[in-house]
């Protein structure tokens, strides 16, 4: 069903070209704002793979939800209430995908195993050694299987969002190491597509209460401890467990003792269980330390990219802006950011101690400040030991690699500021697909208010940035005054106060866009966009005619003295950002050997 065009590279060749990061060595390349290093040796085209999401010969696609990816609640009697359609954007492009449902709170290992048996079929086997190490049941639920004949000749495409993306990658790691003992291979996965994946972990678990350096110890007086208590109480009562479907009782026995579990009501309220204590859960794998164990730990635990698999990594940016006063990041004023504004604010200024930065983060805390609302932009970059094919900052769907032929065995990093520019992940309003929300949005007053906000978003955001930076400056000024007074020195002159008020007026001259970090494609990414645009123009006569007319008009303005030759040069050099014709051989030939009149004649014929 699926075939590759050229000869495959041997595993020996792949392993020899892979470099690893020592567990105790600081990451010298992990500088704030720097993109992953591109291996130039991969720019040589060896083979190409294309993905097909529609039609008779379409690829088999499996969707993997992320952390707390609950889209429906099971009501008494078996009836389900849909909370939100988390895959509505993907289902518009992908025909008949399989939506998996691994435990929303389990570790990456357990979720990957559950995902395998949901696709292949059979009783879940977490592995004897793994189950013994973390003290939970070896066997879980039994699934019929979405694709019983899943093998290297019939691979699947995994699409994961957030925590689900790292789950998909770990499943391929288990397949490549034959964890399931059924002669599996990494070639059973044709492509892995990630959106906002926590490849390098997140600092949010530490703010919530995870003790840095402990990997699994939670502060008893923290929000994380409160959330763990909620999980245990839900699992303790059978009715609540059916309602939320955490799928933890199969292996952890968190139900009441009367229901066949191991929990008392007090142990449930205090979250005293093997699930919370042994570190085989979501909070460890989501942390920076848990992520590092997957790429800087033991050799057998490192995930190596398969030379026959395509890897696409969408890194979402542009959801936060950087203050010029403190360097902190704040959420932007958009509808999609409103539900995660508090988390974005926390991530944008969470500062850890220098000792933790040195031994746990191994970089500055500010590296993790820029975020997309729930996850740091830095966290979404692939692990250091994995190859990067190119970095592309897409501005329109045309340059999205998912619809083009791709070279397997390395990452395509796609920096996305607006998700509407992607093919698979359109930027839909949060919870807008719910029937109740749709009815509310259709109310005349709500509709007019929404239209007013959408028209004036730029103005609101402009004054919002001014206000935040002004308050930050005042707080910094007051802090410096208190420091001077506590040290016994004289208070600063009145000129300092005048400086603060005068600089506040200068904020009106600043532009909001200056605070937002902009990503650009690297050399390989620019060449990719240039090539894609070239092929698009060659295959579209109407676009070709449009751009030839633009060039001729610009030449005419230069000859008439209205423009300058420098404008013409910059006009061409901006391709493909402004959609201009490149100076490649094909276009030189077309431009000099065919006039506009000739082209119109040929089109009419």
From TrEMBL:
Q: What is this protein called?
A: Lipase-like C-terminal domain-containing protein
Please name the GO terms of the biological process aspect recorded for this protein, alphabetically. lipid metabolic process
Which controlled-vocabulary keywords does the entry list?
A: Hydrolase, Lipid metabolism, Secreted, Signal
Q: Which residues form the Lipase-like C-terminal domain?
A: 60-176
Under the heading InterPro entries, the entry gives:
AB_hydrolase_fold, Lip-like_C
- Compartments in which it is found: Secreted
Per the record, what is one GO cellular component? Answer: extracellular region
What species is this protein from?
A: Glomus cerebriforme
Ranges of Polar residues compositional bias? Answer: 9-20
Q: Name any one Pfam family assigned in the record.
A: Lip_C
GO terms (molecular function) for this protein are: hydrolase activity
Q: Which Gene3D superfamilies match?
A: alpha/beta hydrolase
| Region ranges (Disordered) | 1-22
